[in-house]
C-alpha cells in the first residue's frame, strides 16, 4: 500500500481543511474512511479466495498421489498373494481357483456366523407386564435401593439395639 508518514497526513489534512472547510470536512473524512474499509475488505476476500484455490489444488494433487500409491500397494499385495498361492499349490492361480479345494479358495472364503443370541428388544416391556403378585412372591426388585437402605429394611428386629 501507499506509505504515508505523519508529515504527509498532516499536510493532506491542512489542504482538505482549507479546500473543504470545517463544516464539510468530518462528513468527507467519514465517507473516505468507509470507502477505504470496503476496499480493504475486498482485497482480503480476494486474497482468501486465491489462498483457498491454491490449497484445493494442493489437496487434489495430494489425493491423486495417495490414490496412486494405494493402487500400487494393492497390486503389489495381489501379486505377492498370487506368487504365494502358486508356490503352495504348484498350479496356476486360475487353475487353482477353478479346482475347488485349493489354498486360494480357503483364503478368500469368509465363514458365515449367524447371530447366536437372539436380540431381546422389548425385555423391559415384558418385565413390566409381569403381575405384581408374581414379583412379590419371587422377590423381584421393583425399586432401586441403596445398600444401606436394604440392610436397614431387612435387619432382624431385636429388643437390644446397638445405638442408644
UniProtKB/TrEMBL annotation:
Subcellular location: Cell membrane; Membrane
Record flagged with keyword Acyltransferase: no
Its job: Part of the twin-arginine translocation (Tat) system that transports large folded proteins containing a characteristic twin-arginine motif in their signal peptide across membranes. Together with TatC, TatB is part of a receptor directly interacting with Tat signal peptides. TatB may form an oligomeric binding site that transiently accommodates folded Tat precursor proteins before their translocation.
Homology family: Belongs to the TatB family.
Alphabetical UniProt keywords: Cell inner membrane, Cell membrane, Membrane, Protein transport, Translocation, Transmembrane, Transmembrane helix, Transport
Source taxon at top rank: Bacteria
GO BP, sorted A to Z: protein transport by the Tat complex
Record protein name field: Sec-independent protein translocase protein TatB
Taxonomic source organism: Aquabacterium olei
GO molecular function: protein transmembrane transporter activity
PANTHER family linked to this entry: SEC-INDEPENDENT PROTEIN TRANSLOCASE PROTEIN TATA, CHLOROPLASTIC (PTHR33162)
Membrane topology (UniProt): Single-pass membrane protein
Pfam name, any one: TatA_B_E
Gene Ontology annotations for the cellular component aspect, listed alphabetically: TAT protein transport complex
Subunit structure comment from the entry: The Tat system comprises two distinct complexes: a TatABC complex, containing multiple copies of TatA, TatB and TatC subunits, and a separate TatA complex, containing only TatA subunits. Substrates initially bind to the TatABC complex, which probably triggers association of the separate TatA complex to form the active translocon.
Amino acid at each position: 500500500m501507499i506509505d504515508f508518514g505523519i508529515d504527509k497526513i498532516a499536510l493532506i489534512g491542512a489542504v482538505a481543511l482549507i479546500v473543504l472547510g470545517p463544516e464539510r470536512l468530518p462528513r468527507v473524512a467519514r465517507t473516505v474512511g468507509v470507502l477505504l474499509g470496503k476496499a480493504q475488505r475486498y482485497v482480503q476476500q480476494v486474497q482468501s479466495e486465491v489462498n483457498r484455490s491454491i490449497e484445493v489444488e494442493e489437496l487434489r494433487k495430494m489425493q491423486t498421489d495417495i490414490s496412486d500409491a494405494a493402487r500400487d500397494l494393492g497390486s503389489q499385495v495381489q501379486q505377492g498373494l498370487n506368487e504365494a498361492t502358486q508356490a503352495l499349490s504348484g498350479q496356476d492361480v486360475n487353475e487353482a481357483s477353478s479346482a475347488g479345494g485349493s489354498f486360494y479358495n480357503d483364503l478368500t472364503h469368509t465363514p458365515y456366523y449367524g447371530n447366536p443370541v437372539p436380540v431381546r428388544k422389548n425385555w423391559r416391556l415384558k418385565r413390566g407386564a409381569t403381575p405384581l403378585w408374581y414379583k412379590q412372591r419371587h422377590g423381584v426388585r421393583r425399586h432401586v435401593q441403596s445398600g444401606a437402605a436394604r440392610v436397614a429394611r431387612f435387619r432382624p428386629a431385636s429388643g437390644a439395639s446397638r445405638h442408644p
